[in-house]
Amino acid sequence: MKGTDPVLLDVSKKLGLTDYFLIVSAANRRLAQAMAREVEGRLKAEGVAPPRMEGLEVGWWVLMDYGDLVVHIFREEARSYYDLDHLWADAPRVELELPPKGEAV
Question: Taking 60 as the threshold, does the pLDDT of residue 91 lie above it?
């Protein structure tokens, strides 16, 4: 799966509901849905309970709530519209270890 512009924000000191937001973009609806299923499958294989999930059918903004981590998979247009990156700009960014450019995230 190829997501773009992934950002991990530490919102633990600003939001009492979760510790981290992972925000990533998907080029289209099908990719957003596939990415959500991939995240769910990989974490389930690691023993992480299935998330509370919203938006999978529409694929505009898929929200996956794992408690300490909330994953936001946005279509590119939705990410620009809701602009969580700007809304939480004062939250510290956590460095991600990503594969080389051009490989799937």
Answer: yes
Domain 4-91 sits in CATH at: 3.30.460.10
DSSP code per residue over 68-85: SEEEEEEEHHHHHHH-HH
In the block, residue with structure tokens 């004062």:
90
What are the residue ranges spanned by the domains of the chain? 4-91
Cβ of 54: how many Cβ atoms within 10 Å? 12
Contacts of 56 (CB under 8 A, 6+ apart): 33, 36, 62
Give the CB-side neighbour count of residue 59, counting CA atoms within 13 A: 12
For the entire predicted model, the pTM comes to: 0.89
User: What is the enclosing helix (H) or strand (E) of 10?
Assistant: strand 4-10
The model's pLDDT over 11-56, given as tens digits with 9 standing for 90+, comes to 999 998 999 999 999 999 999 999 999 999 999 999 998 889 999 9
29 Cβ neighbours under 8 A, 6+ residues apart: 58, 59, 60, 75
